[in-house]
Amino acid sequence: MRELPKDEKKQNIWSSSTTSERGENMYKFYGWETADITDARGLTPRDCYDIFSRAWCAETCAPRMRASWTPENKTLGQCSVTAFLVQDIYGGEVRGVPLENGTFHCFNVVGDCVFDLTSEQFGDEKLCYEGCPVQEREVHFLKEEKRLRYELLKERLGKEIIMEFTTDIFRQFDKKWALLTAGSMESFNTMTVSWGGLGTIWGKPVATVYVRTSRYTHEFMDGGEYFTVSFYPEEFRKTLGILGSKSGRDMDKMHESGLTPKAVGETVTFEEAEVTILCRKLFKQPLELANMSEELVSRWYGKDAPHDMYIGEVLEIN
Ligand SMILES: Cc1cc2nc3c(=O)[nH]c(=O)nc-3n(C[C@H](O)[C@H](O)[C@H](O)COP(=O)(O)O)c2cc1C
Fold this sequence. Notes:
This protein is of the alpha+beta class. It has 10 helices and 14 strands. The protein has helices at about 5-10, 45-55, 80-90, 135-140, 145-165, 170-175, 215-225, 235-245, 255, 295-300, and strands at about 20, 25, 95-100, 105-110, 115, 180-185, 185-195, 195-200, 205-210, 225-230, 260-265, 265-270, 275-285, 305-315. Strands 7-6-10-13-14-9-8 form a 7-stranded antiparallel sheet. A 3-stranded antiparallel sheet has the order 3-4-5, with helices on one face. A two-stranded antiparallel sheet has the order 1-2. The longest helix is centred in the middle third of the chain and has 21 residues, at about 145-165. Flavin mononucleotide binds near residues 189 and 244.
């Protein structure tokens, strides 16, 4: 990517998006109108642009352009690290527009959808996105400094993605159900949950779950610092039914369920999950029956064990 002449830079002072007369958000990056793909969290490339806009900084800019990087020209020098992170989200290919100086300007191709989150640094100059060669991350990341910038941008993005996560959370828990998993890859347990929520407390994004003290998973919730809440496509309903009716104490649930465990942070989720929320335990509190209405006590706790409430800080949403 080349350094932009000063007068060209002036044309690059875009806000994240502007609003059309019809009140719609308008973007300036190449392909924004047709980039209608979404990931499992519901993120579109337009949402990604907003998230990346808050994460790009001088340190994530290529070193040779860093002195010229400003918040007003925030896409400068961010193309390859951005395009590889976008590839992490949607898959597809990273391709590169050949530049005069022999380098490539990276952008994304996902199916029929071609978009370039960092095109604004070129101002009014029209790049040709056709017939551009595929860019391999292994080649780009031979440069250790670039790999480190990718990691930094990824870290800065993580927090922004959490705050951008929107879902019909009532429906997700109550109707679609989730798996609550705690422990490590060596030893973990999982169970179906439909009680839970997402919110904010102590200035942190949090997930809350309620686990009866009789559950085998309860032991893992108490034994470790991390847990995951994961959501699944409809075809896994039967599996979630099994994991919600049989105890890991009595049988090899994992073998029966056919799900594929995978590590996330220091704990576990499953390959088949659409979305996984990784949490660090902050708080545990028994739901005291003495503080509950009689109606609730007799409806829910006649012969069953009480629930403990766990609040976990949301560290990642993948
Ligand atoms: C749809 C559904 C939702 C459930 N939600 C919860 C819940 O929020 N909290 C809870 O303690 N148990 C809940 N359960 C029950 C546990 O998933 C079930 O008892 C499970 O077998 C416990 O497994 P474990 O002993 O291996 O931990 C639910 C079960 C189903 C089917």
